Amino acid sequence: MRHRLIWWAGLCAAWAGAVRCGGSDTGPANPASGAEEETERVFLPEGSRCEQVVPPEVLRAGSADPNCTPRVESVEADLNHDGHMDLRRVYLLGCPTMLGEDVQPEIMCREADLNYDGRKDIFRHFRAGEVASEEQDWNFDGTIDAVLHFAGGNPLSVEFDRNHDGRFEMQVLLQDGNVRRVKVDAVGDEHYDIYETYEVQTDTGQPRLISIGYDLQGDGSMDRLVSASGPEQGGEAAPPAAPAPGEE
Ligand SMILES: [Ca+2]
Ligand SMILES: [Ca+2]
Ligand SMILES: [Ca+2]
Ligand SMILES: [Ca+2]
Asked: What kind and span of H or E run contains 170?
C-alpha cells in the first residue's frame, strides 16, 4: 500500500475480455473441459448488483417524442462457453433529444463472474456514461472486499474490507493515481484510528510516507502525529494534514 496502486489492475486484468484473476495463469477451472466425464454443474445464485431500472433523472428529463419511453436492457455473454452467462452489461436506451437527435445506448453497469461459479464477483457502475464506482469480491465468497470510487473517470478513493467481515476498515485516498492518505480502523469501532499521509516525490514520482497520525481516544480527531522525518508531535490534538482530494 506504500506505492502506486496497481492492485486492481492485477486483480482481474481483463474482466471485460479473457478473464483471469488473482495472478493465476491457469484461469478458472472448467469441469466440462478435458478428458473428465462431464457431470452436471451446480452454479451459485447470480448475485447481481447491477440494477436494471431507468435512472430517475432520466425519467424526469422526459422525451421530445411522446411515444418514446426510456428503458434499460441487458446484454449477457458466456465467456468460457460452458452454457452459463458470466458477463452482463446493462444499457440505458434513451429517447431522441429535443433537437431530434438520436441517443446512443449508454452503459449503466457491467458485472462479471470471474471464476465461473455462477456468482458475479466484480461490478462496475456508471453515471451519465462515466464510471462512478466499482465493487470487487476478491475471494469469491459473495461479500464485497473493495469499493473504488471515481471522479472524472479517475480513481479517487478505495475502501477495503481486509478481514472479510462485511465492514470496511481501511480507506485509501488517491491523487493522480498515487496514494495520498491511508486511514485505518485498527480497533473495529468503525472510526479511523490511524492516518497515514503520503506525498509524491518530485525526483522519483513515487509517494513517500511523511506522517502518521493516531486517534488514541477514539473521538475522531488525531491525538498524536509522528513525522517520518522530524520529531514527534503530541500531547495536544495534532493539527490535521491538508485534506486529500475527495476528503470530507
Ligand atoms: Ca460461462
Ligand atoms: Ca464468481
Ligand atoms: Ca469477498
Ligand atoms: Ca472488515
From this structure: strand 170-175
